[in-house]
Amino acid sequence: MANRIDITATDGHTFTAWHAATDGAPIGGIIFLQAIYGLTDHLGDVCDWFARDGYSAIAPATYDRTERNKVFAYDDQGGMTFRENLEEETVLLDIEACAALLRETADRIAISGFCTGGTWAWIAADRLDMDALVVFYGSDIHDNLDRRPKCPGILHYGDADHVVPLKTVHKIRDTYPDTEFHIYPGAGHAFYNPEQANHDVDAASLAHQRSIEFLNQQFA
Fold first, then answer.
1. CA separation for the pair 62, 185 (Å, rounded)
2. What are the residue boundaries of the structural domains of the chain, listed by start?
3. Domain 3-218 classified CATH 3.40.50.1100?
4. Alpha-carbon gap, residue 18 to 47, rounded angstroms
5. pTM above 0.85, yes or no
6. What is the pLDDT of residues 139-159, one digit of tens each?
7. List of E strands, the chain
8. Which residues pair with 135 in a beta bridge?
9. For 55-67, what is each residue's pLDDT tens digit?
């Protein structure tokens, strides 16, 4: 079961995070970045799912720098405004602190995220030394096409995503033809999250399977 822990970044900021460890030695580590709603229970579940597949996982509360334990309900769009408090340099400090903890048991680290967290994962893969990138419906990657992730990546989008239209999804895919890219028919935004209305069981299962296969290949 994932546990809530406190992690301290190099600038002295302490933030909470979900953490799930593997039963044995991990294949690698993975960091999950939150959607606009904050560090929900779903992030703890995600850490558990990946830990069961051999990956030590951490999901940091990036909103803690503005307001500790800030979480929005799924029907509350306040996170769209609140996320504007995030600053690139401090988000990266929090990610680096998570990576340092994971590296105590894992040699290689992946960065991942959902919605706006998927965009932050994209930015982190450009700025930091990560070994793999896994993005679930990154909402603003199309505004960051000048970024060049330094590691192999896999991206997941639904073709019925109301946040990232299919035309925009195709633009992202075509800009990065060497990145593994999957588009799920009939799936909407947040299709991976069973706590949200757009949850698509089949698309979520396939995206998870593909992500694990991708990570296993990269970390073999």
1. 31
2. 3-218
3. no
4. 7
5. yes
6. 999 999 999 999 999 999 999
7. 3-8, 14-20, 28-33, 55-60, 109-114, 132-136, 153-158, 180-184
8. 113, 155
9. 999 999 999 999 9
